[in-house]
């Protein structure tokens, strides 16, 4: 078998193997006819024409298959988005609760304790307890949760970033500890 | 009767080839040689005809050691439609000829 004929045969065989089920018999038919085509150049032309015809015949089927497969994909995507949103919201709620506990509980407690000891209020300590402590907790929680509960970790990180941004804006507007 | 086919000149050539001997099975390459159509033109026509059930396809029972070939022939519906198509083409040709004759 000449190189051209061999190439033609390989081309049609490759197209036949890639064709969707409805086009397969046609691909096989063209491949069988190749043995009867006169001349090597003729065989190559036959294969090229056949491949083009099979491509045109296969495209609508492939579209149809893709559209049929898309329905469950969309379904899964919607479910996935729902799960991720719940995770992020949980993270934000957790971060908010922790921040509230630190600002409303621990920072006030520190103020009360320092007052009772007679050293007066220590703004740096209160500020650290109110903001630096939760920030560290956010980072630690995000790292711990990143592998198994990435969306929750993302929610916590998002809250941490928002808090930092808020503090930057606040301090740049009102000055440090004023 | 309304034809289910888009009757391009190439389709008409294929129909003509089948109408020469409507009962006989024909091979793709033989039709290509008869009509002068290349595989890229011929097979889409054959596919369309087969999908509209105007053509039936079958694998030849092969001799031992020889791969089977795909063969085609008209279904009863296909034969009817092909005859109708050829008739309407002849009619329109004669009308055109008459019109151009009247013009001259």
Topology:
The complex is a heterodimer of chains A (178) and B (104).
Chain A: H1 3-18, H2 24-33, H3 40-116, H4 123-145, H5 150-174
Chain B: H1 9-19, E1 26-27, H2 28-35, H3 39-51, E2 55-59, E3 70-74, H4 76-103
Antiparallel strand pairs in B: 1-3, 2-3
Helix pairs in contact in B: 1-4
Describe it.
The complex is a heterodimer of chains A (178) and B (104). Chain A has helices at residues 3-18, 24-33, 40-116, 123-145, 150-174. With 178 residues, chain A is mainly alpha-helical. In chain A, helix 2 packs antiparallel against helix 3 (40-116) and helix 4 packs antiparallel against helix 5. With 104 residues, chain B is mainly alpha-helical. In chain B, 58% of the residues lie in helices and 12% in strands. Chain B contains four helices and three strands. Chain B has a three-stranded antiparallel β-sheet with strand order 1-3-2. In chain B, helix 1 packs across helix 4 (76-103). Chain B is elongated and about 60 Å long. The A-B interface holds A 25-26, 28-30, 32-33, 35-37, 45-50, 52-54, 56-57 and B 27-29, 32, 38-44, 46-47, 57, 67-70.
Structural class of chain B: mainly alpha
Measured between the Cα atoms of the first and last residue of chain A, the distance is 91 Å
Distance from N terminus to C terminus of chain B (CA atoms, Å) equals 33 Å
Write down the overall mean pLDDT of chain B: 85
Choose one word for the global shape of chain B.
elongated
Structural class of chain A: mainly alpha
């Amino acid at each position: 078998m000449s190189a051209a004929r061999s190439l033609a045969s390989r081309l049609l065989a490759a197209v036949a193997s890639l064709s969707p089920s409805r086009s397969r018999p046609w691909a096989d038919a063209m491949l069988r006819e190749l043995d009867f085509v006169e001349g090597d150049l003729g065989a190559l032309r036959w294969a090229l024409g056949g491949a083009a015809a099979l491509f045109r015949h296969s495209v609508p089927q492939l579209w149809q298959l893709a559209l049929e497969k898309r329905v469950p994909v969309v379904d899964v995507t919607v479910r996935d988005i729902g799960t991720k949103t719940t995770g992020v919201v949980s993270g934000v709620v957790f971060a908010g609760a922790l921040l509230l506990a630190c600002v409303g509980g621990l920072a006030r407690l520190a103020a009360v304790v320092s007052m009772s000891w007679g050293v007066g209020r220590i703004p740096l300590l209160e500020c650290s307890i109110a903001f630096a402590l939760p920030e560290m907790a956010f980072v630690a929680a995000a790292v711990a949760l990143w592998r198994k509960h990435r969306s929750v970790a993302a929610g916590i990180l998002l809250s941490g970033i928002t808090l930092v941004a808020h503090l930057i804006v606040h301090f740049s507007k009102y000055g440090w500890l004023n | 009767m309304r034809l289910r086919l888009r009757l391009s000149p190439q389709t008409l050539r294929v129909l003509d080839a089948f109408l020469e001997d409507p009962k006989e099975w024909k091979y793709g390459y033989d039709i290509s040689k008869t009509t002068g159509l290349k595989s890229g033109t011929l097979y889409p026509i054959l596919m369309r005809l087969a999908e509209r059930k105007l053509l039936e396809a079958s694998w030849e029972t092969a001799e031992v050691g020889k791969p089977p070939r795909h063969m085609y022939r008209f279904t009863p519906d296909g034969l009817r439609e092909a005859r109708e198509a050829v008739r309407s083409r002849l009619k329109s040709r004669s009308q055109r000829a008459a019109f151009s004759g009247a013009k001259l």
